[in-house]
Amino acid sequence: MSKSPIRVTVTGAAGAIGYALLPRIASGQMFGADQPVILQLLEIPDEKAMKALSGVAMELEDCAFPLLSGMVLTSDLTTAFKDTNWALLIGSRPRGPGMERNDLIKVNGPIFVGQGRAINDHAAKDVRVAVVGNPCNTNALIAMHAAKDLPRQRFSAMTRLDQNRAQSQLAGKAGVHSSEVKNTLIWGNHSATQVPDFYNTTIRGQSASKAITDEAWLKGDFFKTVQQRGAAIIAARGASSAFSAANGLVDHVRDLVNPTPKGSWNSVCVVSDGSYGVTEGLISSFPVTTDGKGNWEIVKGLTLQPFIQEKIAATVKELESERTVVADLLK
Ligand code: NAD
Ligand code: LMR
Fold first, then answer.
1. Which helix (DSSP H) or strand (DSSP E) does residue 305 occupy?
2. Who has the most CB within 10 Å: 95, 178, 220, 270?
3. 191 CB within 6 A, ligand 2
């Protein structure tokens, strides 16, 4: 018997990430080749944006995707989040050259209050939320606080793009295929303070810190490249990453929906329980496993090298200061 469709809300659906993401959801790459979807597409109430969204919807129709069971195009929050099972919160302003992601906090933060409330009030009981719009950790925190009746575990933000970036960089340096780099681990904020933990990442089964003997590169160029990759793309392309971000989100959600293979993890920003020195209640990137039934856990018992510990303290400090900036949105 075929599965009944799930409802997936995508905000900012006519934007660059939305454009790259929607065909991948509708073709089954996020929720599985046997899972029909109804796409609930939110844009701002602006004639140009809604017109662009109607064009995106025409293209989706023109693909005749077997799994696409319906589409809702709206600028109304209640309609967008009605009965939704997955809310993918992308819609927000991207940064431009010379900006840090948290320069967006004042303009983007308030968006996540209204959306969090609408999810709380109108989404399906099993709703899950993934935040991409920057600064994504703090925006997820805002949405989580606004959705007062939902368990905090329902909220995540995306460092999967950073994980994928780090994996490729390590593979290039080690001269192996990226599939031979496993358990690539990002701690902290999706920002220039994020911590790509090469000690707990493996290459052909051994720590990347041993497989790559150039410690200066690991602590220097590797760190900087991963931390600054978003800015490098903006400088080169004149626009922020789009299809790699959409790809990161496909990976993020697919790996939350399916059970994590034994012995592995993925980097996901979730609410901290105080593990690894990360202040309780912040949304921070951790090594995460899932049971495929909607429950995730932070992997416990990893050893943190002093270099990594110090970097985690700095990224936590940044997350705390972002939380202070948006304190009025967390009430
Ligand atoms: P974009 O400007 O191309 O598209 C954003 C879309 O969101 C626009 O169509 C806009 O009309 C819409 N929008 C704005 N406010 C909205 C609201 N309140 N409700 C609904 N829609 C709204 O931007 P993009 O390149 O798609 O990037 C979107 C966001 O994702 C940015 O904040 C960017 O910084 C972030 N991003 C995050 C990551 C990550 O790894 N976490 C990666 C790339 C981009
Ligand atoms: C990225 O990492 O590419 C995104 O967060 C966009 C940005 O502003 O860097």
1. none
2. 270
3. no
- Does residue 1 register a pLDDT over 60? no
H or E stretch at 245: helix 243-257
- d(CA 234, ligand 1 centre) in Å: 14
Is the Cβ–Cβ distance between 325 and 195 less than 8 Å?
A: no
Q: Which ligand is nearest to the CA of 90?
A: 1
- 190 annotated active-site: yes
29: CB partners within 8 A, 6+ apart: 250, 254
Nearest-ligand number for the alpha carbon of 55: 1
Spot the catalytic one: 122, 145, 190, 252.
Answer: 190
Q: Encode pLDDT of 244-302 as tens digits.
A: 999 999 999 999 999 999 999 999 999 999 999 999 999 999 999 999 998 999 999 99
* 253, 30 contact by CB (below 8 A): yes
pTM of the model: 0.98
How far does the centroid of ligand 1 lie from the alpha carbon of residue 75, in Å?
Answer: 15
Nearest CA to ligand 1 atom 1: 15
Strand order in the sheet with 68-74: 68-74, 37-42, 6-11, 86-89, 128-131, 155-157, 266-271, 283-290, 296-298
Q: Which ligand sits closest to the CA of 107?
A: 1
Residue 47's Cβ-count burial label (10 Å; 0-12, 13-18, 19+) is exposed
Q: Is 70 exceeded by the pLDDT of residue 116? A: yes
Outline where DSSP puts E strands in the chain: 6-11, 37-42, 68-74, 86-89, 128-131, 155-157, 181-182, 186-187, 195-196, 202-203, 206-207, 266-271, 283-290, 296-298
Q: What is the DSSP string of 107-176?
A: HHTTHHHHHHHHHHHHS-TT-EEEE-SSSHHHHHHHHHHH-TTS-GGGEEE--HHHHHHHHHHHHHHHTS
**Minimum-distance ligand 2 atom for the alpha carbon of 162:** 2
Q: Is the CB of 143 under 6 A from ligand 1?
A: no
| 180 CB-contact burial (10 Å; exposed 0-12 / middle 13-18 / buried 19+) | middle
